[in-house]
Every structure is written in structure tokens, then in C-alpha cells.
Amino acid sequence: MPITVGVMGMKSVALRAASVFTHPAPPHDFLALFNPLSSARQLRGVVTAVRPETPQSTTIAFRPGNGWSPHDAGQWARIGVEIDGVRQWRSYSLSAPAGSDPEITVTACGKVSAHLAHETRVGDIFFLAPPQGDFVLPTGPRPLLMLTAGSGITPVMSMIRTLVPRRPDADVVLIHSARDRESTLFATELAELSEQYDGLHVIHRFTGEDGRIDFSDAADLDALCPDWRSRKTYVCGPSEMLDAAESLWTNANLPDTLTVERFATATYAEVDGATGGTVTFEKSDREIEADGTTPLLEVGEEAGVLMPSGCRMGICRTCLTPLLSGQVRDLRTGEINATEGDLIQTCISAAAGNCHLDV
């Protein structure tokens, strides 16, 4: 009687046979010597293009390995990069259109972003986490207003690149603020797109010359986009701009038509004499001395631990990690938590003595 072996069974047999030759390393690790994107434990991507955008900003395209989920326009992803032998993780909006290989556009601000913007080369390897986020396009056609400032244009650029060339009924007004013309991201491409497609109208606001948009009342917005009240609006930029826009839309009884993307750290309470301790990352087998003011998320990332994270400001709860023992401090309130088994938010918690985390 013939024996039938399924595809999964054949794969399992092949892996066991290969392990004879790769022992003590598993076959996946041996394969990674020849294909750096092949890893059963960590999603990776290889840099395929590096394009300067401004003197301080760079677009980096990469090809992800198996396990990457195609992104929706406007989403972000966590990117890991090795710096001085330590794996650093940060979250970046994806600027490429949906359905294409991902890209990030990075402005040199901070250690990791500066490294990516100035030191990345074609062929470099990124460590990746799948894209996420709900700052995405509406499901049906409707007029849109995009309010952006500085690098806040990055997720919106993904939306524009996705929507405008593919939808003849697109109706998008983009109002983008930048310090000056030289620091304006995607200026040439936006000019070409607005020239080619009637559905895109671009307004640049150079704050060094024109000042910032005043959201204390509707006068500035009425002048820039008279029909803003009838549009679905997306806003991304500095916290002050987002807060002011939310207030204006609330006062206009239109809060449901506004979608905000925030990239800001949490506000921490001042705690005099806060002491830290030894943080043990149990699953990663790492022990790190930490002060009492640095978020545990950053402590782990600096030590090369793969830490779950999302918003990095205490909202999305993606970073929840079990506290196995010890105690931590909520950096927003100063409250101490010493309850074993509690899920703590590592992005807004610091060591308050020795502690053990299940990561």
C-alpha cells in the first residue's frame, strides 16, 4: 500500500535530515549564513535603496523576508538596527504606497534616527516587526484634508501615493508646514503629483516666512481650505499642533471627522531621589543596571532585548509585559507597583529597585 506524505510532513522530514549536517545549530540558522532574510526567530529585511530627501532626511527602501504583512497606507512598523553591537528598536511610519515594498523616511533626530539617516547603505539588514496602526484611509470615497508638519507628512505621503494615482474620484487637500523650502519633505514629488492629478491640491506653509497656522479660531483654516468642515481630516505633526487641531474640531462639533496620529513621549512626573536597580529580562537572559527614570522599554532596547512596543507613550498597551518580581514606578504618576504577575507598560515604567520581567 503506497504511503502518502503531505507537504508539511515532507518539510518536517527534510528539516530533520538537514539538522544532521548543521548540528548543533538548527537548519534555519545555517541557512541564514547564505540568506540573511531567512530566520525562524526574527523577521528581517534587506535595504534595497537609499535616497536623500533633504540634508537631514533620508528615504530607505527595504525588502522584507517571509512573515511580513503588507502594510496599509498610513501604518507604521518597528525597525531594529545594530549600533555598536547593540540592537536598537524604533517605530517609523511607512512612506511607500500600500501594495509595494516598504520604505521609511527618517529625519536625523536622536541617536537611532541619525544613524539610519546618515549611515544606512544598500545591503544592510533591518530587524522588523509587522506593520500596525489605525491611521489609515477611509473605506469609501470622500473629500479629504491632510494637515501635516515636519516629518508628520510621512504617513500621509503613503496615503497620497496610494490614493491619488489609483482613484479618479480622489479629492485631497494637503496643507503641509515646514520651516523653509530646503527642509520640506517630498516637495518635488508633491509638485509633480499635483500637476498630474486634479484630485490633489498642495499648499505649503513655510513657518519661517508665514508663521504657524493659528488653530485658536477657524480664520486661518477658512482662508487655506474654505470647505474644511465637510472634509474627513487627518493631522500628524508636533503635539502642540495636534492639541490645537483637536480643540478646533471639538469646538466646531466635528470631532468624529478628525483622525490624529501622535508620535510623542509620555509626560513624566518629577520624582525626587528616584532610585533604580537591577532589571532582569528572564526570557532574554539579560541583567541590566537601570536608573529610576529611564523607561524599562528603553533599558531593554539598549541591552539588545526584543521588547514589544507600540505608541511609546502609554496609550496603546502593546508593550504590556508581566512583572515576575520586584517593583517598578509609573513615570507619569510616581506610583509604585510591586504586584507579582501584573502586566506593566514598559514604555512608562521604570525600575524602583530590582525587578524581573517576563521578556
From TrEMBL:
<dbReference type="GO" id="GO:0016491">
    <property type="term" value="F:oxidoreductase activity"/>
</dbReference>
<keyword id="KW-0001">2Fe-2S</keyword>
<dbReference type="InterPro" id="IPR012675">
    <property type="entry name" value="Beta-grasp_dom_sf"/>
</dbReference>
<keyword id="KW-0408">Iron</keyword>
<dbReference type="GO" id="GO:0051537">
    <property type="term" value="F:2 iron, 2 sulfur cluster binding"/>
</dbReference>
<dbReference type="InterPro" id="IPR050415">
    <property type="entry name" value="MRET"/>
</dbReference>
<dbReference type="InterPro" id="IPR001433">
    <property type="entry name" value="OxRdtase_FAD/NAD-bd"/>
</dbReference>
<keyword id="KW-0560">Oxidoreductase</keyword>
<keyword id="KW-0274">FAD</keyword>
<dbReference type="GO" id="GO:0046872">
    <property type="term" value="F:metal ion binding"/>
</dbReference>
<keyword id="KW-0285">Flavoprotein</keyword>
<dbReference type="InterPro" id="IPR017938">
    <property type="entry name" value="Riboflavin_synthase-like_b-brl"/>
</dbReference>
<protein>
    <submittedName>
        <fullName>Ferredoxin reductase</fullName>
    </submittedName>
</protein>
<keyword id="KW-0411">Iron-sulfur</keyword>
<feature type="domain" description="2Fe-2S ferredoxin-type">
    <location>
        <begin position="277"/>
        <end position="359"/>
    </location>
</feature>
<keyword id="KW-0479">Metal-binding</keyword>
<dbReference type="Pfam" id="PF00111">
    <property type="entry name" value="Fer2"/>
</dbReference>
<dbReference type="InterPro" id="IPR017927">
    <property type="entry name" value="FAD-bd_FR_type"/>
</dbReference>
<dbReference type="InterPro" id="IPR036010">
    <property type="entry name" value="2Fe-2S_ferredoxin-like_sf"/>
</dbReference>
<dbReference type="InterPro" id="IPR001041">
    <property type="entry name" value="2Fe-2S_ferredoxin-type"/>
</dbReference>
<dbReference type="Pfam" id="PF00175">
    <property type="entry name" value="NAD_binding_1"/>
</dbReference>
<dbReference type="InterPro" id="IPR039261">
    <property type="entry name" value="FNR_nucleotide-bd"/>
</dbReference>
<feature type="domain" description="FAD-binding FR-type">
    <location>
        <begin position="40"/>
        <end position="138"/>
    </location>
</feature>
